[in-house]
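Case 882 in the screening queue. Each case pairs one protein sequence with one candidate compound; here the compound is zinc ion. For every case the pipeline is the same: read the inputs, emit a complex structure as C-alpha cells, and attach any notable structural observations.

Predict complex for case 882.
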Amino acid sequence: MLRTDDGPTIKLEDYRPTDFVLHSVAMTVRLFEGRAEIDTQLELERREGVAGDARLVLDGDELTLSGLALNGTAVPAETYTASPERLEIASLPATGRFTLDIATRIVPEENTKLMGLYRSNGVWCTQCEAEGFRRITYFLDRPDVLAPYRVRIEADRATAPILLSNGNPAEHGDLPDGRHFAVWDDPFNKPSYLFALVAGDLDSIHEEFETASGKPVTLGIYTEKGRVGQAGYAMDALKRSMWWDERRFGREYDLDVFNIVAIPDFNMGAMENKGLNVFNHKYVLLDPDTATDADYAGVETVIAHEYFHNWTGNRITCRDWFQLCLKEGLTVYRDQEFSADERSAAVQRINSVRRLKAHQFPEDQGPLQHPVRPREYREINNFYTATVYDKGAELVRMIATILGRDGFRKGMDLYFERHDGDAATIEDFIACFEDASGADLSQFALWYSQAGTPSLAVSESWDEASGTLTVGLKQALELGASGTDGDPFHIPVRFGLVGSNGQDKVVTVRHGAEVTGDVIHLTGEEETVIFENVGERPYLSVLRDFSAPVTLHHEQSLSDRLALARLDPNLFNRWRILNDLVAEALVAASRDPQRTAEPPLPAQIVEAILGSAGDDTIEAAYRAQALALPSEQEIARMLAENVDPDAIHAAVDAARRLIGERGRALFERIRAEARPAAEFSPDADSAGRRALANVALGYLAAASGDPAPAEAQYRAARNMTDRLAALAVLVHRFPGTGAATAALADFYARSEDDGLVVDKWFALQATVPDPAALDIVAGLLNHPKFTLRNPNRVRALVGTFAGANQRAFHRADGAGYRWVAERIVELDKLNPQVAARIATTFRSWRSFEAERRRAAQEALEKLSAIPGLSNDTRDIVGRSLR
Ligand code: 0A1
Ligand code: ZN
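Case 882 output:
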C-alpha cells in the first residue's frame, strides 16, 4: 500500500523530546517462510514534568498489531488505537517504569521497498535508517531515543544456519522441528535506525584484531554461498581502517565482534548498524577478474566509512534527522582522510573535488538546493544528498584548515569525551572546537544554514618598485530559493606565492584580512592582503587543496596560469589550474559551435596537458588526472543556461582528438611502458599506471579512429580494469561496429552470471554518448537479466542513462525525459526511495535550451500528476518544478 497523500512538512524548529523515556528493548523475531512474528518488549517511563494523561504515540509503517500488553496484562481495546502508521496508548502509569509488549506480524517477502525487514535472494536482512524500524514494530522511531537491545532470533536451521544481530553473541541452541535460535546482546545505547538482523545460509571469513589497548575483536564477513573468496580485500581494508582510527583519532573498537554482511539487494551503499554492518555486495566482493581499480578504491572507502561511523554516528548519534551531516559530513571527511593517507593525498583530493563538483555543485545551484543542515523536509530519505555528505565533509575540512591539525584534533577529542553516548547537534559539535581552541566559529557556522555555492573573486596587483603584491578577495552569494540570506561566510583561502624556481616564497604580510600560516581568512565581503618584501614577481596560487567549496574567479594572466600548472608545489592546485583552463576553453567552444575553424583548445593548453602527462617525475595517477577532460556535465554546469549537450559533446570530442593527435608519440610511449606486472595488485601505484595507460588508449583511439589497439587490449586483458577500459573505447567510440558488438557479447558471456559484472555491461551501453543510446537502453529493458527489483540493476541501466548520458537523456525531442519518467512511475510502485533518487537527474532541467526545457517540464508535470505517486518521488518532482 502506498501513501498517496502529501506527507506533512517536518521542521527543525518543532523539535522537542519524547514524552516517554525508553530504558531497554527486548525482541524475539521468529522467521518463517512467508511471515515473520515480532514480539517486542519496551521498558518505558513517563518523562519528568510530562502530564500524567499524555498518551504514548508510537510510529508504524504498513504494520498490523497482533497483541498489546502493559506490565504483562492485555491492554483493553478502549485505551488504545492502532493503525498501520500509528499506535496510540492512553492510561499509562504516571510515574515509574512499566513494560509494554507489542506483537506485530509482517511479510518480509512482500517488502519491495527494501526498508525494514526484507529478503534478499532468500536471506532475511534489515535496513532501518532512517525510518525503517517502524516497518518492523511500533516504536519511538527517532534518533534521540536510545536504549540497549537484546534480540532473540528463531528460524529454520537448514534455511538460516546463520543468525546475526547487533552487539555480542549471548546464547544459541536448538528448538523443535529443525529450528534453532540465537540471542544477541548490544550493551551500547543505540537508536532504532542502527538496529540490524540477518538470517540465512551464508559463507564467511573471520580474522582476529587486537585493539591498541589489547582487546581482542573477532571480525567476520558474510557473503552469499560461494562468494566469500571475493571478500579478502574488504577484510584487509577493515583492518587498516581500525588501525588508522586508533592512530589518527585515538578511537578503538568497543564490542567483541564486528560483522559485515554483503547482500545483493540494497538501496544504498552500506549501513553502519552497531556491530553488524550490512553492505550492498558491490562494496564488498572483488577480484581482479570482476572488479576495476575504481571498484577496489570504492570498497576501501565504504568499508572505512561504515567502520568510522562506530564513533561518529553510533557512539555519538544525531539528535534529529536535521543533524544528519553531524554524522555523515564528519564520517565522509574521515574516510577521505583515510584514503589520502592510504593512497596519494593529491590524487585523492582531486577525486573528492571532482565528485563534489559533479554532484554537489549542481544540487546547490538548482531547485534541489538546501543547506547542509536543512530546516525542513517532507521525506527524510531524500536528504541523503551530496550536500549533506560531501559539502558536509568540506565544512569539517574547513574547520580543520582554520584550526590547524592539532587544534582540530583537540576539538575532536573533546567532542568524543563530551558527547559519547549522546544524540548531539551541530551546535554541540562546533562548541567543542571553540572550547578546545578558543576560536570563535559563530560566523563559520553560517556554512551549515546558508545554502548555495558562494563565488570568490581574486585580483592581484604587483608593484615592481617596492616588491609588493596586493591581493583583493571578494565573495558573493547568489540569493537562492532556500535558506539564503547572502551573509558573508568565513572562507579559509589556502595560498602560496610561488617563485620561478617552483618554491613557495617566505613573505611578510603587512595588513588587511587575517592571515595565519598559509591561510587567508576572508570574513568580510571584500578584503585585501598586502605582501611585502616579495623580491621577484611571484605567481599567486590560491584556494590550494580546494580549501573552501566556492566557485573561483581569479583574474590571472594565461602565462601565470600556465606557469603554475607546471610549477606549483601544491600538486592539487597544479591540476586545478590546468583543469580550469581546459574547462573554460571548452565552455567557450560549446557556447559558440559555429566557430569550427578554431581549435577547441589553444595550443599552449594542449602543450601544458601533454607536459604534465609526460612528466615521469610525478606519479602516474596524477598524470592520468591531468589528461582527464572535464565531464560534459561539468561544462553544462559552467554554461548555466541555454545548454546544448550536442554542442558540448562536439567540443569535448574535438579536444580529445586534438590532444590525441598532438600527443600520439607520448601516448604510444606510455602504453609501451605500461607492461602489466605478472601478478595483479590493486595498490594505488599499480592502479595509477593502469589508469594512465588506459587514458592514453582512449586518446589514441580518438585520434586514429582505429579500433584495433582497443580490440587487442580487450583480448589480452588479464584484469577487469584493462578489459573494461578497452571495451568502453570500443562501445563508446565505435558503437555498433563489429568490433564493439563482438567484444560486448564476449564480455556478457564471461560475466558468468556475476550480477556485478552484468551491471557493468548494462551501464556501459547506457552511456554510449549518442542520442540513439535511448534505443539501446529501451531495448535492454526487455533483456532477461533486467529487473526493477534489484537497485543495482536499475541504477546500472536507468540511473546511469539519466545521470551520465547527457546527450541521450537530454535529447532535443524529449524522448529521453519521457522514457526515464515512465521508468520512475513503474519503479515508484516497488521502491520509492530508488525511484526518487533517479528523479533527481532532472534537477538541472532549467539550464537547458528552450526546446529541451519545455520537454523536461512537460515530463515532470506529467509525473507530478500521477495519482498514487510516493511521498519520496512527489517531493523530488515537486521541488524540481518549483
Ligand atoms: N548511513 C548510511 C547511508 C544509508 C542511508 C539510508 C539507507 O537506507 C536504505 C541506507 C544507507 C551511510 O552513510 O553509509
Ligand atoms: Zn555514512
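Case 882 observations:
- The first strand starts at residue 10 and ends at 11.
- The pocket of zinc ion (ligand 2) is lined by residues 305, 309, 328, 331 (CB under 6 Å).
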